[in-house]
Amino acid sequence: MNKLLNRVPEVTLFFWLIKIMATTVGETAADFLSATLNLGLGMTSYIMGGLLVVALLIQFKLKRYVPSSYWLVVVLVSIVGTLITDRLVDEAGVSLVTTSIIFGAALIATFALWYASEKTLSIHSIYTAKRELFYWAAILFTFALGTAAGDLFAEGMHLGYAPSALIFGGAIAAITFARYVFKLNAVLAFWLAYILTRPLGASMGDLLSQPVTNSGIGLGTVGTSAIFMAVIMSLVSYISLQRKRQLLPASTTK
What we know:
Blueprint: H1 13-36, H2 40-62, H3 67-91, H4 96-118, H5 129-156, H6 161-181, H7 186-209, H8 220-252
Helix pairs in contact: 1-2, 1-3, 1-7, 1-8, 2-3, 3-5, 4-5, 5-6, 5-7, 6-7
InterPro entries: DUF347
Keywords: Membrane, Transmembrane, Transmembrane helix
Pfam family, one: DUF347
């Protein structure tokens, strides 16, 4: 299948950089909207959920990978995933352990249904609406699970933000080592790393945004979100230009 027909990007260094920063923005932006702007978790969830639905409709209508559309959906899914977990924990009183188990089970069920239907979990074959639907469902649950797991390690287990980030970063490094040295299955390695980037990003977001009295660096949610969004937009703009250059030969030969 021509890679230009795939609806998601190739897995490159830029992919992982933007993904980690998007997860950080998901953590800090959710806190900024709900706490700093005093919108509350409920109102913030409705607003961001509505924006996510609109972004997904545009994404599905495109039927191909467009960097700006794709990464906008990722950022919005990151924020919504964070809000879902926060509402369950803060409003419904569900423990972080239970929340992690719930979203872990939901993610496994999504993968099981996806594989049963399509016989593959590879992101290099997302060229139908059905597969893309499974893909975004899995992404949403990885964000919700990662938020719960990140908070569980950093706050529930009182490890702190920096140690938690080191733990999750070390786990991703171990998976990378296993992939290239011990030839760990590529699809399994991808999804394991993808899941772990969420708690890594959440821990980094809290480390950067939280005040020094809470073991953070004190940049605040506004500063942290602004910095990471600026970098994300710069990288996505660069990738978009590269994408146009890839498509140019195909269009000029018609």
